[in-house]
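Try this one yourself first.
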């Protein structure tokens, strides 16, 4: 398509991504009377937020028998869980806002599970000193996502669904919007706005074993990097301890929060060896490593898994609080948790790192903002506690929206914005045309699978220098092979092969960032566990990794962690 004025859409605010972060921000911006649009490569209700099962943290203190919870206790648990790499000002902000955020969701229409006294039910989660995870059975993300989407529709927010964003557009020293491919007809469109917010989620699909949706390919981060914005702490990749063996479908931490226990092939509750106090409710990095070690020591089951035993909970409790997990186990493993233990193994789950933003959600590029899993503010540091991801989406979706509303009073589009976006469309069209003109060479699925296996094998739960150097070499060779690869389907309508290829280009870049950050960090901290450097090194690495593109090369540097209320100390569970 030749770029023309019909392909240009102008708004006050552009939000890329239709999950919880994007929806919460859009709701706030629309309420302020600003014209806001959401651009999403899937329908918003198919965003990965829908897969969040276990709950959202807030110090409501509804479980009186557990003692009096507080935002300060929530903050301490978060900082400790992060292995002291989280910025404590951001953690304090999130934990202070948590109770109001949950109550607001309830008032907007989210149906939370209830205690007998009618208060919102709260279950224990790993690394938490109190049962503070509010939940809606085991479909919490699904419930919240539907609630916020209904509210966004009520505000008449424009949603461009099945539009694949290909690049951020810049002009006059600022971000002015983006270009996006309309998946249904293959036309490229330009979106102009004084403020653009990235809410594109994580990049888990660079790994072969992942609980992430197929859409989690991290193009928000790769586009921001190409636009000159740094990525932060990308080597910190969380592996969830319990995904369903053979499929890697998430089995919520809520299953252990309700009393489920992990057993090896000898029937031993092995977490007592690794976390004597917290046991099965230790943080995710601790439990994932323990399972990996049990399997490596020959105490796992053939094929590489352990058992999650829920049988003692009883059918009534499982039906009430874990109905989705029961159905998943029956449908995909042929196991009913009421009668049999569930086979589980660790799988990549979450990205602690992301686009570097300040506590307001702003990047170093004027006009560009980011929040949620695509961003690194940093509230998770080296390891995220379960229940804090949903909280981050709504708190920093709201906070970043407030920043954007404030900045719109003094910022606008540059005079040449229209010509700049047309130039961007033409540039992207040329790139796509050249791509479709390629014939022969390797297929994209082979390269994609090779990347995913490389990341799991070389940058997984345990790492060492030799293994990672070998993995980095494979990534760099994949980058060269990509430029000779091609796709078979040359049409424009619903060309998902083209979309996957465009995703893969960014995925290879992110893989290299993870690799270089992991090689440079010579310590073990949180999810980054090195067998050749098994101890935490606060002297050299109590710092955020910052990666930028400089002359088309990835350069790694460090910046200080913000330490405030909680001094750095040992981490035991």
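Now uncover the answer:
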């Amino acid at each position: 398509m030749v770029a023309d004025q019909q392909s240009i859409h102008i708004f006050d605010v552009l939000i890329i991504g239709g999950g919880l972060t994007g929806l919460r921000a859009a709701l706030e911006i629309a309420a302020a009377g600003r014209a806001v649009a959401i651009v999403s490569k899937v329908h918003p209700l198919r965003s990965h937020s829908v897969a969040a099962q276990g709950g959202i943290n807030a110090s409501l203190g509804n479980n009186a028998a557990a003692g009096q919870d507080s935002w300060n206790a929530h903050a301490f648990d978060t900082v400790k869980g992060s292995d002291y790499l989280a910025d404590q000002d951001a953690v304090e902000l999130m934990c202070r806002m948590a109770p109001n955020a949950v109550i607001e969701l309830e008032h907007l229409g989210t149906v939370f599970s209830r205690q007998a006294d009618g208060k919102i039910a709260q279950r224990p989660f790993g690394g938490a000193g109190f049962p503070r995870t509010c939940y809606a059975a085991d479909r919490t993300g699904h419930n919240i996502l539907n609630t916020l989407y209904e509210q966004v529709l009520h505000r008449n927010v424009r949603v461009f669904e099945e539009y694949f964003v290909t690049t951020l557009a810049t002009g006059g020293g600022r971000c002015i919007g983006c270009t996006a491919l309309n998946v249904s007809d293959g036309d490229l469109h330009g979106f102009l706005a004084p403020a653009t917010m990235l809410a594109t989620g994580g990049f888990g699909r660079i790994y072969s074993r992942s609980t992430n949706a197929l859409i989690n390919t991290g193009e928000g981060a790769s586009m921001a990097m190409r636009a000159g914005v740094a990525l932060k702490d990308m080597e910190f990749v969380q592996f969830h301890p319990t995904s369903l063996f053979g499929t890697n479908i998430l089995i919520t931490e809520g299953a252990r929060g309700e009393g489920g226990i992990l057993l090896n092939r000898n029937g031993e509750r092995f977490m007592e060896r690794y976390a004597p106090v917290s046991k099965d409710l230790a943080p995710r990095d601790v439990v994932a490593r323990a399972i990996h070690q049990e399997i490596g020591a020959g105490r796992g089951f053939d094929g590489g898994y352990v058992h999650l035993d829920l049988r003692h909970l009883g059918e009534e409790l499982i039906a009430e609080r874990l109905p989705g997990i029961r159905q998943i186990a029956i449908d995909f493993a042929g196991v009913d948790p009421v009668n049999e233990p569930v086979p589980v193994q660790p799988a990549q789950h979450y990205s602690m790192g992301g686009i570097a933003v300040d506590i307001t959600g702003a990047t170093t590029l004027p006009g560009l903002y980011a929040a949620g899993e695509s961003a690194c503010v940093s509230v998770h540091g080296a390891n995220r506690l379960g229940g804090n991801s949903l909280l981050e989406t709504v708190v920093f979706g709201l906070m970043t929206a407030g920043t954007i509303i404030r900045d719109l009073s003094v910022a606008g589009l540059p005079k040449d914005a229209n010509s700049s976006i047309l130039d961007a469309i033409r540039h992207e069209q040329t790139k796509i045309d050249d791509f479709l003109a390629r014939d022969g060479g390797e297929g994209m699925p082979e390269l994609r699978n090779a990347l995913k296996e490389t990341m799991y094998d070389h940058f997984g739960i345990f790492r060492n220098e030799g293994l990672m150097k070998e993995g980095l070499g494979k990534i760099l060779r994949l980058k060269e092979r990509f430029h000779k690869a091609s796709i078979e389907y040359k049409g424009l309508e619903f060309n998902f092969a083209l979309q996957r290829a465009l995703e893969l280009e960014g995925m290879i870049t992110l893989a290299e960032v993870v690799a270089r950050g992991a090689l440079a960090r010579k310590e073990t901290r949180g999810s980054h566990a090195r067998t050749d450097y098994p101890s935490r090194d606060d002297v050299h690495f109590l710092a955020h990794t910052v990666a930028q593109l400089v002359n088309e090369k990835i350069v790694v540097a460090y910046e200080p962690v913000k330490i405030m209320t909680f001094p750095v100390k040992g981490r035991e569970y």
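Discussion: The first helix runs from residue 20 to 31. The radius of gyration is 23 Å.
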